[in-house]
């Protein structure tokens, strides 16, 4: 039980908090998207009520914001390594038996052959096209795929949406004096997870 819980804790905490931090950074950097996300929350949730889990399914734009965040900033950029059980042909490649296969999800999310204007943070793309985290064409697989797919998707999804919705519902967000959205440092640190090189520093303002 001890190792099960330490696995769950390790796999679930960093990944979810990094996702919220990247989402907030992208929202602050893209005021148009921030305004639309906040407007949706203000329309869907009655004034003075706090956001609860059951509201998430009605927050379609917020869901698109989370997908767009995980497209550009998948916390587990290379998934877990695979090993080929036998020689296999994959597209134009031959994978030899025993080869270690690393899937670069980060690169798929920024590939112009897969996504139009990949560097642009535009959640609307997920309103135009119905893509979920288990999509068959493997365009969006921040939780991995197949038998080893992340078992924490339901919890992660609830927590990330709920935390984001709460932060956006109650506050307007601004950057520290002297920092402009267009000059924000969006560098990454590659480790087991891909975090922001400089932690996000944002100032909540009560509207
Ligand atoms: C945004 C949040 C999260 C992301 C992006 C994420 C992503 C991933 C990825 C990419 C894998 C490897 C899947 C593969 O290689 O196919 C994985 C595995 C795993 N995740 Fe998550 N995860 C998140 C949250 C969570 C949470 C909340 C939990 C549980 C509390 C969790 C538990 C696990 C476990 C136990 C594994 C190993 C599964 C196995 O090896 O069979 N994850 N996760």
From TrEMBL:
Provide the residue positions that the database annotates as binding heme. 150
Q: Does the keyword Metal-binding feature in the UniProt annotation?
A: yes
Would I find Cell cycle among this entry's keywords? no
- Keyword set for this entry? Heme, Iron, Metal-binding, Monooxygenase, Oxidoreductase
Q: Which InterPro entries match?
A: Cyt_P450, Cyt_P450_CS, Cyt_P450_E_grp-I, Cyt_P450_sf
Q: What GO molecular functions are on record for this protein?
A: heme binding; iron ion binding; monooxygenase activity; oxidoreductase activity, acting on paired donors, with incorporation or reduction of molecular oxygen
Name of one Pfam family that matches: p450
Q: Which cofactor does it need?
A: heme
> Superkingdom, according to UniProt?
Eukaryota
The entry's family comment says: Belongs to the cytochrome P450 family.
Task: Indicate what this protein is called per its UniProt record.
Answer: Cytochrome P450
